[in-house]
Amino acid sequence: MAKTMAQLPYHCGVKVRVFPSTEQKRLIKRNSDASRFIYNQMNDMTNDLFWLKQVKIPITIVLNRIADLTERLRNPSTAISNIHGWLNHPDFDSLMKANAIKNYKTAWKLFRQVHQAGTPKFHKRGYTQTYQTSCLYGAKVAVPTMRNGSVRLNDTHHLQLPKLGRLRFKGLPSKILDQADDIRIGTTTISMDAVGHYFVSLQMGSGHPFAAKQRVTKSKVGIDLNLDNFLTDSNGQVIANPRYYRMIKGKLAKAQRKLSRRARRAKKNQQRLSESKNYQKQRLLVAKLRLKVANKRKNFLHHVSTTLIKNHDLVVAEELRSKNMLRNHALAMSVSDVGWRTLLAMLSYKAGLYGRKFLTVSPRNTTQTCSRCGHVMAGKNKLTLADRKWTCPSCGIFHIRDHNAAQNILAKGLATL
C-alpha cells in the first residue's frame, strides 16, 4: 500500500511561475473568490455561534439558531453549498472548497496552540488571488508519482491541474525532475501576486532525500545579525548590509504620492478605483517597485543561507524577535529591510535538506560578555549601540563588538549540544 504524505520521511516545496490563458485566468479568479467566500462564511458562522451562546436567557429563537449553526458547522461544505447554490457551478474545484474549510480549522488550531496571531479574521478582497487544491491518486495507481495524480507533470514545461487543465510553467529544478518517479504531490497552491504574475506552489513528499547530504567539514560557526553590517560570523568574516529598500525609498515615495493623487482624482470624478485606468497603471508601477526589492532581498538571503549551510556542519544564530524590534520606530524601517526572520527560516529548512545542524540561542548578554574571560559589562559600563569596539576591563583583551558576540553565540550553541 502506498504511503500518504504524512508517512513519507522527506518533504519539500517548490514554487514555479506559470503562464495561464485568458480562460484559465478567469477560472483562477473565480476559485480564489469562492475560496475567500467559504473561509469568511465559516468565520461568520463561528462568530454568530459564539455571541449567541453568550445569551443566558433560554429564548426559543436563539436556541434554534444555535442548534442550526452547530449542525451546519458539523458538515460545512454541504451546508454552505446548499444555501449558496452558485458554489455548485462546474467552474469550481471541489477540493478548493475542502481546503478553504481545512485552512480555517487550521487557523483556529494554531491560535489555540500559540495564542499570538489572534483568532481568524475575515479575508478581504485585494489585488492578489490564491486558492488551494489537492493532488488525488486513483485506486488503481500502485505507486503515486508526479506523473499520475490529479496534479501532475505532463512534461518538463507543462503541468496538469484540476479545472484549469494544461498550464505552461517555468523553472522546475533539475533535481526534482530527475526524481519525479519517486516524488508524491500533496497540497497545491495557485496564486497571483499584485503585479499579475501567476505561480503554482507544490508540496512534495518522498521516501528519498531531495538533496544529497554534504560532506563533513568539521567546521562550526556562530553568526551575529545586526544593522551596522548584515552579518558577522565567529571567524571574523563580515557581510555588508545591502539595504535594498533604502536604495529605492525616494523613487517609491514619489510613485506613491502620484498614486495617492490619482486616487483622489478618481474619487472626485466619482469613479471606482478598479475602473480608473490611470490609477491602475500607477498601482502596477508601485507594485513592481516593491516586488523588485523583495526579489533582490530574497535572492541575497538565499545565497547567504546556502553558503553558510554548505560550508559548516553547525550554524548557531541568535533567536531574534523582529516583532518586538519593530516597536522601536527609530529602527523599524532598517529591521524590516534586513530580513532576519526570513534568513533564520531559510537556515532552518536548508539544514534539514542538506543534513546539517542549525541552532538558535537566546541573545541575552551575547554582546555584553567577554568571549575570553566571561566578564559581563553591566551598570555604568554597559555597552551602547554606539560602542562598536571595546576592551574588557577584566582581562584587557580588545574586542570588535560583533565578532565577540558571534563567538559568544557559538559558545552558547555548543553548550546546548
Automatic annotation (TrEMBL):
Taxonomic source organism: Levilactobacillus parabrevis ATCC 53295
Keywords on record: DNA recombination, DNA-binding, Metal-binding, Transposition, Zinc
Any Pfam family the entry gives: OrfB_IS605
Residue ranges annotated for the Probable transposase IS891/IS1136/IS1341 domain, each copy included: 213-328
Domain of life: Bacteria
Domain Cas12f1-like TNB span(s) in chain numbering: 340-409
Gene Ontology MF, one: DNA binding
One of the protein's GO biological processes: transposition
Signal peptide segment: none
Stretches that traverse the bilayer: none
Lineage: Bacteria, Bacillati, Bacillota, Bacilli, Lactobacillales
Family (UniProt): In the N-terminal section; belongs to the transposase 2 family.
Domain Transposase putative helix-turn-helix: residue ranges: 13-42
This protein's name: Transposase
